[in-house]
Amino acid sequence: MQQPTRVYFDHAATTPLLDVARRAMEPYAGDVFGNASSPYQVGRAARMAVDRARAQVAELCGAQADEIVFTGGGTESDNWALLGVALRNLQTRGHAVVSAVEHHAVLEPAQTLRELGFEVDIARVDGSGVVASEEIERLLRPDTRLVSVMRVNNEVGTVQPVEEIGRLTRERGVLLHSDAVQAAGKMPLDVEVLNIDLMTLSAHKFGGPKGAGALFIRRGVRMQSLLRGGGQERGRRAGTENVPAIVGMGAAAQIARECVTPNAAHLTALRERLESGLCALPNAVINGQDAPRAPHITNVSLRGQRAESLALGLDMTGFAVGTGSACASGALEPSHVLAAMGRSPEEARAALRVSLGIGNTADEVDEFLQVLSKLLQRNERN
Amino acid sequence: MSKRVLCAMSGGVDSSVAAALLVRQGYEVIGVTMKLWRGEDDPFAAHRFGGCCTVGATEDARRIADQLDIPYYVLNMQDEFNARVVDDFVAEYARGRTPNPCARCNEFIKFNAFYERAAELGCDLIATGHYARIEQADGRFMLRRGLDHKKDQSYVLGMLRQQELSRTLLPIGHLEKEETRRIAAELGFCVAAKPDSQEICFVEDGDYARFVTERVPELAAAGPIVDEGGAVLGRHAGLARYTVGQRKGLGISAPLPLFVTKIDAANNALVVGPREGLNREELSATNARWAFGTVEPGRAVLAQMRAHAQAVPARVESASLETFAIRFDQPHSGVSPGQMCVLYDGDEVLGAGTIE
Q1: Is the pLDDT assigned to residue B51 strictly greater than 60?
Q2: Which of A148, B10, B113, B287 is the most buried (most CB within 10 A)?
Q3: CB contact under 8 A, B120 and A309
């Protein structure tokens, strides 16, 4: 018998769909099925819904509505940010900087940039996973086209000094992309304050549906489209809009903005409870503990343990937690983030990621700590 | 409380039925696929959808586990597999030997590292879909050939000792292959008609020579083919292409058929001779592992030197914890250094070692 998941502690992977979003989506999965580009009423209704969602997402991040382009998700947005700028500069090529702890949706396109003839530098991080703005400054060159530094790291929760980095790039006329999928709904997000030119959002990380994302593209930024062959999204991203998912994203974005303060407070309190419990366990080290961190992610290395086995053992008792990222077959891969932070392969192998959501409770945290400690005791005996 | 078993599932018909039988017997079964090999980087390569360890195999295994309503995981064991099996495979070739990576994988991965994982997941037992039987009698566990002698896999399990045998279940060892397929079809398993895997799993296209020479380029270097007296008869195209006993592909015309009798890696030479040159009166083995203690010198045994070869009568000359030597009743031509020699008493495995 498979044990159903009772306690979900992997909100950095995905979040449950908010009721508000589900209800908002329903008409567009039903009667209002029109193509948002069609001129008749049912198409116009879909178009209105997409535009409402666009305004909601724009408000979430302090942007103008026409600066928001809907995509198929965070991965597409990240890929597009890098490749779109590169393709625009294909004549002259040039230089780009990405941080060592970016998501693979940034790192792999960065490799493609190299294949296209760009030079790419990987910015180092400190032991807490922070990219110092001095490191970016050191790497900037006259021909630098783009810098990509995420707002919140998805594995350890470290908040990057994007605002300071943005001041540097702004001064030099370099574009700054930031993957903010883990920041939305967890902390205030304002592209003006942060000096960001391109920003990635993903609906399902803040209570929206899967299959919808957005790329903020500051007015005046010259990009090339990747998906072509239609006039959708003002010609920037061809393909019939995923109207239900976009509407759900808009509804979730509104909640993410309105409730960010109480939600962050709830998450912070839970995380502190969790981390004080974890620190009482033998050989536990919170990765990135000294850095500013988003309120929902804890990454803990339980030295001498194999996190993969712990995560599977937790699953068998109904707890869902994360470890590294999974490959196509579902096997867990070693973390490039912890490696970049200078952790040994053994420490990386021992790292569990617990990421909390607004639906979690203090009781769940307490029960989790009990179950984890039992698993550790069992392994002691083996 | 029922015993918890970690069942290795490759996505093939044998391990799928093994898992199903365990569930039927009332065990608490957890299905896992060991991710052993990274495979090609190109996700569009055709063979990515073929053998073990591929995305297709884990999809099949996951579907079976879901059908059985058991938890299913993919364990990342690539580092262990690389260090223990692949590196050794290449190194053995470089020494002019013919390694048996499946036996080595069983020794170090499936019945060792895998058991560690099982313990970490709170499992008392592990299970695989091998055709061999583990039976308990007189306070000891013995490994016997599978009932389906055509499919018997006791040879590749020859290195299992009491400690491994006592915590291992082989649920399909008493079945004929056709029976296994019938059960799979009855249960509606999508894999019921899947062909058996044949090749070494990490050499995706079956081209061992290329696999080895990519890692040890010297083994692609041409060199002399010599007879047992040292006379040069021709040129070979890189030692990685040959194994002892091979007849085809030598490119030499001679009155009598010639066989590879020895691979002289130190001199990059291939030694050939007539069939009689392959005959051995005896063999010695290292890395011995005994199912239940060493066997006494003088004992009559059956010795099997290849996965699907016939076992031949022999007598134990000497045996210690680490090594043994046997003398064949009749001179025997199927002895390749690097392969395993498994000793049987009837259909019971006594022990195994690596042929020197």
Answers
A1: no
A2: A148
A3: yes
Across the interface, whether the CB atoms of A312 and B119 are under 8 A apart is answered no
| Residues B324, B269 within the same domain | no
CA-nearest residue to B124 within chain A is: A382
Q: What is the pLDDT of residue B49?
A: 45
- What Å distances lie between residue A198 and A79, A230, B38, CA to CA? 12, 22, 34
- pLDDT score of B98 more than 90: no
Count how many residues are written for chain A. 382
Could you tell me what percent of chain A has a pLDDT over 90?
Answer: 93
pLDDT, mean of residues B88-109: 91
- Considering the domain architecture, whether residues B176 and B282 belong to the same structural domain is answered as no
Contacts of B78 in chain A (CB under 8 A): 331
CATH of region A7-16+260-381: 3.90.1150.10
Domain A7-16+260-381 matches domain A19-258 at the CATH topology level = no
Whose tokens are 């196509």? That residue is A328
Q: Which of A309, A332, A335, A372 to mutate to probe the B interface, most B CBs <10 Å?
A: A309
Q: Given CB atoms, is B75 within the 8 Å cutoff of chain A?
A: yes
Say if residue B96 is in the same domain as residue B29. yes
Residues B346 and B233 in one domain: no
Highest mean pLDDT among A354-368, B35-49, B209-223: A354-368
Task: Let me know whether B231 and B311 are in one domain.
Answer: no
Angstrom distance (rounded) from CA A227 to CA A213: 15
Q: Does residue A47 surpass a pLDDT of 60?
A: yes
Confidence of residue B72 (pLDDT cuts 50, 70, 90): very high
Q: Into how many domains does chain B fold?
A: 3
Number of other CB atoms surrounding residue A340 within 10 Å: 21
Contact A308 B75 (CB under 8 A): yes
Residue at which a domain ends, from B254, B277, B300: B277
Same domain, yes or no: B234 and B294: no
Handedness of CA B19, B20, B22, B26 (dihedral sign): positive
Residue B143 lies in a domain: no
Rg (CA), chain B: 21
Q: Is residue B321 domain-resident?
A: yes
Using one digit for the tens of pLDDT, what is the confidence trace for B17-28? 999 999 999 999
CB atoms within 10 A of CB A265: 11
In whole angstroms, how far apart are CA A176 and each of A85, B11, B110, B276, B282?
Answer: 11, 46, 49, 75, 73
Per the prediction, chain B carries an average pLDDT of 91
Q: What is the pLDDT of residues A147-156, one digit of tens each?
A: 999 999 999 9
**Range A313-317, long-range pairs (CB < 8 A, 24+ positions):** A313/A375, A313/B120, A313/B121, A313/B122, A314/A368, A314/A371, A314/A372, A314/A375, A315/A3, A315/A5, A315/B71, A315/B73, A316/A3, A316/B30, A316/B71, A316/B121, A316/B122, A317/A3, A317/A371
Q: Mark whether B289 and B243 lie in a shared domain.
A: no
Contact indicator for B148, B126 with CB cutoff of 8 Å = no
Tell me how close the Cα of A380 comes to any Cα of chain B, in angstroms. Answer: 10
pLDDT of residue B198: 66
- The second-level CATH assignment, the architecture, of A19-258 is 3-Layer(aba) Sandwich (3.40)
Residue B246 contacts A where some CB pair is shorter than 8 Å: no
Is B105 annotated in the active site? Answer: yes
Expressed as residue numbers, the domain containing B8 is 4-129+171-186
**Domain boundaries along the sequence of chain A:** 7-16+260-381, 19-258
Does residue B48 surpass a pLDDT of 70?
Answer: no
For position B303, what pLDDT does the model report?
Answer: 98
pLDDT category, A323, cuts 50, 70, 90?
confident
